[in-house]
Structure formats: C-alpha cells, structure tokens
Design a protein that fits this description.
With 244 residues, the protein is mostly beta strands. Helices cover 6% and strands 34% of the residues. The protein is globular, with a radius of gyration of 25 Å.
Length: 244
C-alpha cells in the first residue's frame, strides 16, 4: 500500500484529448515532504507523515518546533499521515512529486466541501415540496411530517431535516488522471473535487480500482532526503553584565 500526497486545488479548466473530446479537469498542485515515519516498534503501526506549506516559527508551539528540529526538516503548515506497507516507507526529508501517479490511473480525492450555510430540505435533499394550489399556504417548500403519534412519540434519528449544508469532510472516488505536468508538479483529474480554490486536499490510490502496475514504488520522489536545519526555539537574551 503506497502513500498518498497532499495537494493544493488550483482550479478547473478544459483539456482536449487526441480524439477531439473536451474533458473538464481539476488542476491540483502536489506539495508533499516526508516529515516523520511511524514504526511498529515505536508507534505500533507503519505510516508516513507528510507536510505541506511553509510555517512561521513564531506562530508555532515549542513542541512543534522541537518535532521539526529533531528530524531536521523545514517546519510545515499542514501535516497528514498515510498508512503504508513495510515496503513503501519513504525516508524523512524526501519530496514527493506529481510523478507519484501515472496518466490513466484512478485516484480518490479527499477534502472539505464548500459550506453553503443553512438550507432547507428542498435544496439539501431535493424534496418535492407541497402543492402549489388547492388552498396550500406557506408550505410550498416544507418537508412535511417528521414525527409519529402517541407511539413512539418522538422523531427518529437521521431524519432528513433542514440544517447546515456542506463544510464537511468528503471524498470523491475513482477520478481519472488525464494529464501530469512533472515540471510544475501539477495533476489534472477528470471532474470536480471538494473544496474551494487554494484549498488543501489529499490524493490516494483508488480503493475500489486496481493499482497500476507501472506506478513508482515506493513513491515518485522529486528529490532524495536532504535534511534542512529547522529553526530552534527562541532562547531568552543573555546580557554581558555580571554581578559582583
């Protein structure tokens, strides 16, 4: 089982295939650096921790600064863990590029969907609503009855009712990779993906599709591990004055 990657949603555009077919695609920019490795001996499971984005040391807790300083990697704004098999462990400091995937491969993209505020049942669940005539008044977009009579005398859980729409973790499965730009670490996947432009997403091999045989193992690395001096925690200033 290979690791996934962290990517930034750039936006949507159209691509024309060799047969002239126009395909809508989402453009995703890969930004993933291995910041830690989980082992069975220390943590009880095997996984890699990836980081994305640059973080300012002055806005980080001392524990976070110490974590990056110990591993000698640059502080990252976003951290995500991916479970991997023993043969897919990636060294700390390695950068994963767009060549981690191949054209034609199916992937799963996860993120936070767009928040659309408070919505009624007609917009949220596509209810038909009430009649528009025959004396119907002020219930045209109503959800109708939600409860029972004397027994059981309550509304059951999971009844579709008005409420918050969107702004929740969601995954779109089996999206096909149409094109890859390794020079700019861009991946074009067919269809739409969750979230807004510049939002953070995770991309993994499709769970319901066979993994391609030509996928790089253990990962498509942009560069080998290269430790970077992380900023140390701020120390109190020392004065040259001495007391006699």
């Amino acid at each position: 089982m290979r690791s996934g990657v962290i990517a930034e949603k750039i936006g949507m555009m159209s691509l024309f295939l060799d047969n002239g077919e126009r395909v809508p695609v989402s453009v995703l920019k890969v930004d993933s650096t291995v910041t830690d490795v989980r082992t069975k001996e220390r943590d009880g499971y095997v996984a890699v921790q990836l980081g994305a984005g640059k973080a300012k040391a002055k806005k980080m807790a001392k524990a976070q600064i110490g974590h990056f300083a110990k591993l000698k990697v640059e502080p990252k704004k976003t951290l995500v863990e991916f479970r991997v098999s023993d043969d897919c462990v990636i060294p700390v400091g390695s950068q994963i590029g767009a060549n981690h995937f191949v054209v034609g491969q199916k992937v799963d993209v996860s993120g936070v969907s767009l928040g659309k505020g408070f919505a009624g049942v007609v917009k949220k669940y596509h209810f038909g609503g009430d009649c528009a005539s025959h004396g119907v008044s002020r219930t045209h977009r109503s959800g109708g009855s939600t409860g029972q009579r004397e027994w059981p005398g309550k509304v059951f859980k999971n009844v579709k009712m008005p409420g918050q729409m969107g702004n929740k973790a969601t995954t779109v499965q089996n999206l096909k990779i149409v094109a890859i730009d390794e020079a700019r670490d861009l991946i074009m996947v067919q269809g739409s993906v969750p979230g807004f432009d510049s939002g953070i997403l995770t991309i993994t091999d499709a769970a319901k599709a066979a993994a391609p045989k030509n996928a790089p193992m253990p990962a498509g690395l942009k560069s080998a591990a290269s430790p970077v001096e992380a900023p140390a925690a701020e120390q109190p200033a020392q004065t040259s004055e001495t007391k006699e």
